[in-house]
Amino acid sequence: MASDPRDYKLDLSNASAGAPSPGASPQARPYLSVLFACCNVYQRIYRSPDGNTYQGRCPRCAKTVRFAVGEGGTSARTFIAS
Ligand SMILES: [Zn+2]
Questions:
Q1: At 15, is the secondary structure helix, strand, or coil?
Q2: I want to staple 54 with a disulfide (CB 3.0 to 4.6 A). Which of 22, 61, 67, 75 is the partner?
Q3: pTM to 2 decimal places
Q4: How many whole angstroms from 63 Cα to the centroid of ligand 1?
Q5: pLDDT one-digit tens code per residue, 42-82
Q6: Is 75 part of any domain?
Q7: Residue 43's domain spans which residues?
Q8: Does residue 41 belong to any structural domain of this protein?
């Protein structure tokens, strides 16, 4: 039953540290997971500023894909770009 006193000290210093948040919330943007069949890799693509499309690019061959956001579409969050 050996306890390291440094663990307690670490907990205290972490609790008193404030996280810097100047007001922006960058993680609020919705995204889709897309499988690029050309290179068999997954990539997140984020919604465009106008909110009508999702646009992304294959991280390996730079092929671009675009998904339209529309009524009656799928609610799936994962797509395959072929
Ligand atoms: Zn590719």
A1: helix
A2: 67
A3: 0.57
A4: 6
A5: 999 988 888 889 999 999 999 999 988 877 777 788 888 88
A6: yes
A7: 29-82
A8: yes
